[in-house]
Structure formats: C-alpha cells, structure tokens
Amino acid sequence: MVLLVIDTQQGITDERLYGYKKLEENIRKLIKTSREYGVEVIYVRHDDGPGSGFSKGDADFEIYEGFAPRDGEKIFDKNVNSAFNDSTGLVWYLESRNIRTVIVVGLQTDYCVDATVKSGFEKGYKMIVPEYCNSTISNDYMDAKTTYEFYNKNMWPGRYATCLSVERTLELIRNYNKSESSPRINACGTGKIETERLILRQFRIEDAKSVFDNWAGDEVVQKMYGEPVYPTVSEVESLLKKYIAGYVTGYSYRWAVIEKESGECIGQIAFFLVDEYGSWGEIEYCIGVSYQEKGYATEATKAVIDYGFRKIGFNKIQICVRPSNIKSKKVIEKCGFEYEGMLRDYFFIDGEYEGRMYYSLINQNLH
C-alpha cells in the first residue's frame, strides 16, 4: 500500500479549489498517519515544459509546503495526465516493491486525478479514493463542486475505485502491516561498473542508434534473446525511455554494455527479475553478433554478479538458458553457476518445445 499525492504544487494548491480547507486538513492527516504507520508516501509533479512557468526551476512547480516531502520520499515527474504513464517510472517502482493498493489524493479531480485513477484500475491496482482529498476549480462547463461530486460520487465508485471516508482510510493505514513489505535488498539502482574492456552504465537516449545497429535491430540476436526486433531507431528510443524511467525507482538494475575501445553499445545486461523480499535476482543479457565469442558476455556477467552480491545484497542470483543456446551455456559455466534443474517444454519456438535450464549462485558472505 502507498499514498500517492498527485500534483499538489504551489501554483495550484490554494483557495481557488473547492473545499480547500477540508482538502488541506485531510491530506495533511493522511500524510502524517501514513508516515507513522509505515505506508510509503509518493509524490507526483506535473511539468508543463520550459517557459510555461510551471516547470523545473519555477516556484509554482514545487510541491505545496504544507504537504512537503521528507528527505528520501520518492517524487515522480510527468508531462501527461496519468501518473501511471510509462514515462514516469511509477509503475516500474510499484512493481519492484510488490505494491498493489494505491490511495490517491491530490489535484485536479477532473484531469490528473481522474486519469490516474482509471489508468491504475486498468493496470490492475486497487485504487482507493478518500473523500474530500481531491479537488479542482470551476471550468466553462461545470462548477468545482459539481465536478468533484460527479467523479467522487458517480464516476469512480464501483467502477474504477473504492471511495471511502477519511476515517475509514486512516483505519486501513493504521492496520497496515509494514513487515509484509520490508525490502531485504538495497535500492542502489544501476550504478556504473568498469571492467578491463567494458563500461556498464545506465542507458541514455543518445545510445539509440548504437543499440539499433548492434543488436536491437538484429533478428538473430533478438530471437535468441527472446525479445522482438525493433525495426527503427525511433522505436528503440521508445524502449530506452522505458528503461530510463525505471532508473528513478532505485529498484531497476539494467546496464548498457559499452565497449571501451569503440564507445559502442554492444549489448545489455540486467537483473530483469528481482524479488526484494526473497532477496534474489535473475540475470539476462544479450551481445551483438559482431562482438560475440570475445568474452564480453562473461566479463559483463561476472561484474554484475559481484555488484548483485556486494552492492544490492542478493542472497541468490539465478540465470536460465534454453538447451540449444550453447554460447550462453558456456558463459554460465565460466561464471561458476551451479545447475539446479530444467523446466521441461517451457518454450514453443519454431514449431518445437524446448526446456528452460536454471542455474544459480548463493552469496556465501551471507551464510
């Protein structure tokens, strides 16, 4: 469970809002109680872009001082209505924390709050909307009070959200069991790693052409990797934007593999599955055809294993491979993984079934 505070920014959080004093009192109460009982408070800010007066660096863009975040509390910025848009990184973060219940408060009822409630519902989250904890201003079609009541009493209840009294919402927060979601790994994110021949770092938008040329546009690489081919650089840019949005969470661990000599992005490596409660991560990687059989995959994998144990604090690191992928099996063996077993007939590829072989390493420093 999290408390999501949407767009309560200096430029719009004022007396123009319907029921402003009640709104302010209720949101303060929810934030205070959430912090006391271990429910994470997450903030969202809307950015209208440079020169709008409502963007980074502008006073109106900052979160209203009455609801100000504490050090370490997450803030996600957006330039679209829904906080759940892929560009914000919020979904990535909630999934990494195994969060499925979201309490929504903030501004404005008929724009960003409505879009977030509906989008969250469609993504499978349980959306909770406390009464008089969202608001808006009058527009050309409806006054603010009518707008508030239309969404909170007619549009959302029973369709997209559970609409509760503030008292009932506070009760849910007080009954929240923090121990159920206490992570057992470090949210250190994708830190830079340097090896003899490689630099492993976060992806950047300017990597798109290199990514496309070396592996993402190559059917041979992508088929073995189990991912679709990206036919244009612009589609690769869209992929990288999702990766980049995830970095803000601290629970995304995905590296661009850069060859020092050429500066090319020759592949990627990631803990694409992470269980922060079970304290394990699963590695995936791909290397472009022109850079294969040079030991790069082994070099990158060993570096990420070290990072996973030493920095992230995993108890276990696992990796899997199809039996037909001989090259990857050699990498796995060179990295010292122990074979655990095979899930039979796991994949159906080119008209045939193929198994999934699992290997793992245990962090001996934790035992």
Describe this protein with a few key phrases.
single chain; 367 residues; alpha/beta; Rossmann fold; Aminopeptidase; 2 domains; 8-stranded mixed beta sheet; 7-stranded parallel beta sheet; 10 helices; elongated
CATH superfamily of the largest domain: Isochorismatase-like
- In percent terms, what proportion of residues is strand? 25-35%
The total domain count is: 2
Radius of gyration: 23 Å
Number of helices: 10
CATH class of the largest domain: Alpha Beta
Pattern of helices and strands: EHEEHEHEEHEHEEHHHEEEHEHEE
Give the second-level CATH assignment, the architecture of the largest domain: 3-Layer(aba) Sandwich
Strands in their spatial order, largest beta sheet: 8-9-10-11-12-13-15-14
Written account of the structure:
There is one protein chain. With 367 residues, the chain is an alpha/beta fold. 32% of the residues lie in helices and 25% in strands. It has helices at 20-36, 90-96, 109-122, 144-155, 166-174, 208-216, 219-225, 233-247, 296-312, 326-334, and strands at residues 2-6, 40-46, 75-78, 101-107, 126-130, 134-135, 162-164, 193-194, 198-201, 254-259, 265-275, 280-287, 316-321, 338-349, 352-362. The strands form 2 sheets. It has an 8-stranded mixed β-sheet, with helices on both faces. Strands 1, 2, 3, 4, 5, 6 and 7 form a 7-stranded parallel β-sheet that branches. α9 (296-312) links the parallel β12 (280-287) and β13. α1 runs parallel beside α5 and α6 crosses α8 (233-247). It is elongated, with a radius of gyration of 23 Å.
In short:
It contains ten helices and 15 strands. By secondary structure, it is an alpha/beta fold. It folds into two domains: 2-181, Isochorismatase-like (Rossmann fold, 3-Layer(aba) Sandwich), CATH 3.40.50; 193-366, Aminopeptidase (3-Layer(aba) Sandwich).
